Amino acid sequence: MTLELRQIVSIDIAAPLGTVWQHLREPELVHRWYSWDHDGLNAEIQQVFVDGPTETQDVVGDETIHELHWPHHDTLTLRSAVHEPQHTHLTVTRRSHQGTSTFDGIRDEVDEGWIAFAHQLRFAVTVHPDQERRTLSSFGLPAGDRDDRLLDRAGLVGVRGVPIGGHVQARRPDGTLLGGTLDYVTPLQIGLRLHGISEMYLVLMETPAAHTPPHGTVDAILSTYGLDDITFGQVQERWGRWWAQAVPRQARVTSA
To answer: Which domains does the chain show, CATH number per domain?
Structure first.
């Protein structure tokens, strides 16, 4: 029986295939884009990218193709055409949901992870190719009801109406401005490139109310690069204040 596959994410990366491949195979480079900072991240990278997959490499016509295959049928594919050697196309495919007991029909946590991580990878290799990453994250923030949404209170009113590549300017609850560019939008995610002394990357991941009653939740992950300890501390303080004021007494901020 032929296994039915779903394409989860498909993006172009303005970097050579060899560079992107290194960021998938070398744990210290995976650390610059994958997931977010937590105590078990190094062990997770070892399990997911070193111990878990098998790799294949091939040339088909003008294309060089590198793939990672995981036992549960997830496949990450990189393609580079001879006529465009400085660009790489990345896709992730996964098996059909049919017959899987872990999918509730509303949100697939692994799908959402691949989408976010692929965009984080693109940002790392194209904007900050030689810099280490530190992240700030907030998880399980109450999304609010239809008339009082968390993202509206956080100053991101109408962000889903901005075209890809369009400018976003938000006013946080403390009155400070947040400027950026909309990088991608999916039904459950938003990716923003934030401008400042060092460009940062913000991923907002929404969980629908049907999955997490009564109103759903929001997870936020901010990737920073090249910040000294003092500047990172200032960003961390603003980050905590931002979500604490948007969700009084309920924000949960983790950082490393």
So the answer is: 5-127 (3.30.530), 133-255 (3.30.530.20)
